[in-house]
Amino acid sequence: MYQKNEIIELNITSLTSDGDGVGRAGEMVFFVPNTTVGDMIRAKVLKVKKNVGFARVEEIVTPSPDRIDPDCPVSFSCGGCVYRHISYEAECRAKRQKVTDAVTRIGKLDGSLVKDIIPSEKIENYRNKAMIPVGLNRDGEVVMGYYARHSHHIMHCLRCQLSPSVFNDIIEDVYSFLRHRPALVYTPQNRRGIRHIYLRYAETTGDVMFCIVAGSRHFDGEEVLYNSLKEKYPSIKSIILNVNAEDTNVILGKHSYTVYGDDQIADTLCGLRFEIAPEAFYQINRSQAERLYSKAKEYAQLSGKETLIDLYCGAGTIGLSMSDKCKRLIGVEIIPEAIENAKRNAAQNGVQNARFICGDAPQAAEQLRKEGIRPDVIVVDPPRKGLTPELIGTIVQMSPQRVVYVSCDPATLARDLKLFTKQDYSVKEITPVDMFPRTSHVESVCLMSRENPHQ
Ligand code: SAH
Q1: 116: CB partners within 8 A, 6+ apart
Q2: How close is the Cα of 153 to the center of ligand 1, in Å?
Q3: What is the pTM (predicted TM-score) of this model?
Q4: I need a labelling partner for 229 at 20 to 30 A (CA). Which of 146, 398, 403, 422 fits?
Q5: What distance in Å separates the CA atoms of residue 380 and residue 99, rounded to the nearest whole number?
Q6: Model confidence over 109-153: pLDDT tens digits?
């Protein structure tokens, strides 16, 4: 039995889905963050349970050939990146493996269904959105940056390599403004101050949306901050104040006030122009979203005659990018602002065959089924928790020829695929897409077909 603080030697032979190294010592399996396949290490035991243990690397005795020098000072403590210490090629391999592991272990499917990963064109500065928490440390000093791994502890860090430099410059300026004004920072006691800086960037135009999330509608010195940002950054086309005084981890509150400029930001994706409200979801890696959508479109195999349903449609992006190839499009989304965007986006791009419904996807799908809608293709793009068994049942009853499942969590994708394969559908292929280089997250797009096609 191993003891806490004992030093052990481990060969790292695989990675967990979170990107931690896994090594065996006798009967025990140890998890060691910041290591990778092929590392031989000395590690300190931190915690031992029955068959598993957790350890911290003390010394890398023989480095893996995949290793590179991490080029970020906070890479090991920050909760954002987990793959800064390995080559991008090794990262893509690990991500494809993560999808294959989920599909075989949870989905009980053949691993050869998983095709090559589509790597990201950009592996730095690819994020078009940043949510920067603002808080006070134990000494009452202002801290801004990113959450530490597995915690809500703010790690003070103003520049992130995943963000465009304009975000980092703006964040530095906001910090300069706040560092001598700790009273302006939100605390659970004051419930008034600034909690988050939320930035969005439209890559095709360079436009920036600057949003402050605060506990109250106004804060001291707001004009000074807004004017200096407007003056220094002509690319800021919109300043929004969002009020959130609730004691919650949800970042945005219910009310947004446009302080300056536009209410939303507009970007171009797949040749279409999309307006996106602060509350609406938008893919954070634009060029990679185009590749994801184009794979989804290929899988949809549209000829122009089809009825297409796009569930969890956000601002309508996936469905609208396919609307030129189908007869009619129906999108469903729960956030009202996103559905307003979807409707306007359809109109502004001259799309006339689209209808958008604001509602809960399982309920709205059941309603559409009762109305007698018989889609040929259904695209789903749910949040991490995936689909409900009820929604899968409704989709099966609507019996589309093809289901295209876009997923940001291989585990829930695999769970849901297993249910589909028990009910008339077979999985044709799954393509992992790397939307989030350097993090442990991986997107996948999967094609399923109905086994007994209609005549
Ligand atoms: N397909 C879009 C959005 C995907 S993100 C795109 O590519 O941009 C998932 C979306 O599901 C979010 O817009 C979220 O608001 C929405 N959503 C979450 N729960 C939902 C539910 N129960 N019913 C409908 N939409 C939901």
Answers
A1: 96, 431
A2: 28
A3: 0.96
A4: 146
A5: 18
A6: 999 999 999 999 999 999 999 999 999 999 999 999 999 988 999
